[in-house]
Design a protein that fits this description.
The protein is mainly alpha-helical and 180 residues long. Helix content is 73%, strand content 0%.
């Protein structure tokens, strides 16, 4: 569980940004689907407020994460072009999602159907891009047998992780038995 992790306990604020960012992703995906089949739902004031809060919050966190990668030397060192591209595109997607939801809700300032078209096109781009990027971590991180985090989705140790544990650390005795 997240609250059992040391990193969550020591840096709870960062964990909250993680949660809000990912809730923004859920809101964005939901907006893309619901905007095509049940527009009336998105016009309910409470739904509008929740979607706007999540999308704008995720947008602000995306901007923070981009700046953090650019300004912190360690983050700059470990960041790849895919990290920058993915994070920038997601941040733009969150902003476009917030504007799209405002358009659907009926705010006069954004009364152009091209906003919805642009949002749905960017969402479609992500459907094609995600499987080939680091954004696909949600597909693989907890899959059974992946060995990620040492456990499968059920919490049981995976065969891959157990095999790795049996091999490490490699001691001189083990290295000699491997060569035989």
């Amino acid at each position: 569980m997240p609250w059992g992790m040391e990193s969550t306990r020591k840096n709870f604020g960062f964990y909250l940004t993680f949660v809000l960012f990912h809730l923004g992703v859920v809101a964005g995906i939901t907006l893309a689907f619901v905007s095509t089949v049940a527009v009336g739902f998105l016009k309910i004031p409470a739904v509008f407020v929740v979607f706007e809060a999540l999308l704008i919050g995720a947008f602000l966190i995306g901007v923070y994460r981009i700046l953090r990668r650019l300004l912190r030397p360690v983050m700059r060192l470990i960041s790849t072009p895919d990290d920058y591209f993915s994070l920038t595109m997601l941040t733009v997607w969150f902003a476009l999602g917030a504007v799209t939801e405002a358009h659907i809700f009926g705010m006069v300032a954004v009364a152009n159907e091209l906003i919805l078209v642009a949002y749905l096109l960017l969402t479609s781009f992500f459907l094609l891009y995600v499987p080939f990027s680091k954004i696909s971590h949600y597909l693989y991180y907890h899959s059974p047998g992946s060995g990620s985090a040492g456990h499968s989705a059920t919490g049981a140790a995976t065969p891959i992780r157990e095999a790795r544990r049996a091999q490490w650390p490699v001691t001189p005795e083990r290295s000699r038995t491997r060569s035989r």
